[in-house]
Amino acid sequence: MMASRPASLSASLALAFGQLFDGAVLRILLKSLGVTLIVFIILATCGWFTVDWALTRSGLDDGLFAGAEALRGALSFLLAVVGLWLTWRIVAMGVVQFFADEVVVAVERQHYPEEASMARDLSFAEQARNAGRAAARALLSNLIAIPFALALMFTGVGTFAVFWLVNAVLLGRELQDMVWLRHRQGVQQAPPIGRGQRFVMGGLFAGMLAVPFINFLAPVLGAASATHLVHRTNRRKSST
């Protein structure tokens, strides 16, 4: 039983890769990527000015010493970049939440037409609530993790490990819910994939989100893979 889980996830990932550049999924990928970049540009600009203002108010103004302006600018840029790195997953997944239904529908129509015919459409309000809750959980969890990550900074890998662990748990749930919320028959019905399987899936894509360039594909690829994993697991359980 345990040995079949990685194979199931591997097969789901391979199927997702195969459909990633199909017309319907590619349009969603480009659309979500465009929105994510726009949000990031806005956040980066606001973050830079906010940090610059805070440093100026704290006494690091232009008249403090020669080069104070340049130092303040460098610190503002560095802190803004760190902040964006920490919030990339939150922003990217929050954006994809709004397009998740389109990703799931595109995959289901091609591979799972029977399940697609029985799915319920999520309203814009419900999608917005789901995205807001996921973003709030991610933001709160990552803020709680920051002190532990800082305490382990001397280890070299401890900081990354803390954020990976937290986001693996969160991301596994988010990816599962993108699919399962359209198909469950009631709030009490448990999803077909278990916690261990969900954690492995979340850990895989949490790692992808930390890799430059691949992180642009990870949210949509994750939604597609989760669709395959949920339905393949559900079919296997139904047939036993």
Provide an overview of this structure.
By secondary structure, the chain is an all-alpha fold. Helices cover 80% and strands 0% of the residues. It has one domain (19-235). α3 packs across α5, α5 (124-151) packs antiparallel against α6 (158-180) and α7 packs antiparallel against α8. The longest helix is centred in the middle third of the chain and has 44 residues, at 68-111. The radius of gyration is 20 Å and the shape is elongated.
Terminal-residue CA separation: 13 Å
Radius of gyration: 20 Å
* Helix and strand sequence: HHHHHHHH
Basic shape: elongated
| Beta strand count | 0
In short:
Helix content is about 80%, strand content about 0%.
Question: What does the secondary structure layout of this molecule look like, with pairings?
Answer:
Layout (H helix, E strand, L loop, with lengths): L3 H16 L3 H35 L10 H44 L1 H6 L5 H28 L6 H23 L14 H14 L5 H25 L2
Comma- or semicolon-separated keywords:
240 residues; disordered N terminus; mainly alpha; single chain; 8 helices
